[in-house]
Amino acid sequence: MTIDETKLRQLVQVFLEENKKLNLSAFRTEEHCWVGNVLDSLSFLQALEKIEGLRAPQTLLDIGTGGGFPLLPLAICLPKTHCSGIDATKKKVDAVARIVESLGLTNVGLFSERFEDKARDKNFREKYDIVTARAVAPISILLEYAVPFLKVGGFCAFWKSSKVADELAGSTKAQKALSMSFAGIYEYELSPDFGKRLIVFFRKMKATSSEYPRKVGIPKSNPL
Ligand code: SAM
């Protein structure tokens, strides 16, 4: 793990320029983007020492990466990890590709596709040590999107606000159907303005049934 603050600050500059052209994030000042996007993404690194069995991954996939968070800060600080991002919105993926090029990152792959389709591709199914997601969907839906990409024994990491109890309780059926075991919560506070936040972890116990994910749109319209 390498905390390259110069590169992370450069990321903020380049990201804010892209954010002027496209609506990638509500954090429009340097300070807000630094805390709300960069430090929030990097909280995952502190969790590495706290969640049993969780290690720095060789392969990571960020689903619904949008403007590149948590993907890009993690790719900068985990240079030995191959980090990929997927998002259905091509113009966001193109913006992230310009940022990657401008920062000279060589460990990032980007894909503009729906998760439900990509998870059926044998080069992507059950290939990742970690799947991350921030601000994409409730947990029961996220599990169906994320788990097919994970290797058995891999973890998914979902960034959430502190009000997660109902979502967690509502995800027990999805956890069971997808053979996932709750692995813990890492709680943190970035600054008093941002309040408490957390990352919820699940570990994959068995290979995913070929039933999942269901066809595009079904996980969202009819969650497990
Ligand atoms: N993770 C980023 C962040 O925290 O700043 C962006 C989150 S943005 C609110 C959610 C993203 O998920 C959107 O860019 C959307 O295109 C993507 N998304 C939602 N459902 C998707 C699906 N089924 N397949 C691919 N992308 C999807």
Feature tags:
binds S-adenosylmethionine; seven-stranded mixed β-sheet; 9 helices; 224 residues; alpha/beta; globular; Rossmann fold
Briefly, what CATH class?
Answer: Alpha Beta
Write out the strand line-up for the largest beta sheet, numbering strands in chain order.
Answer: 3-2-1-4-5-7-6
Strand content: 15-25%
The secondary structure category is alpha/beta
The overall strand count is 7
Number of discrete domains = 1
- H and E string: HHEHEHEHEHEHHEEH
Mean pLDDT: 95
pLDDT < 50 runs, ≥5 residues: none
Radius of gyration: 16 Å
CATH superfamily assignment?
Vaccinia Virus protein VP39
Helix segment count? 9
Quick overview:
This protein has 224 residues and is α/β, with parallel strands linked by helices.
Detailed description of the structure:
Helices cover 37% and strands 23% of the residues. The chain is of the alpha/beta class and 224 residues long. The chain has one domain: Vaccinia Virus protein VP39 (Rossmann fold, 3-Layer(aba) Sandwich), CATH 3.40.50.150. Strands 3-2-1-4-5-7-6 form a seven-stranded mixed sheet, with helices on both faces. Helix 4 (90-103) links the parallel strand 2 and strand 3. The structure holds S-adenosylmethionine. S-adenosylmethionine (SAM) is lined by residues 25, 64-67, 69, 87-89, 92, 114-116, 134-136. S-adenosylmethionine is lined by residues 25, 64-67, 69, 87-89, 92, 114-116, 134-136.
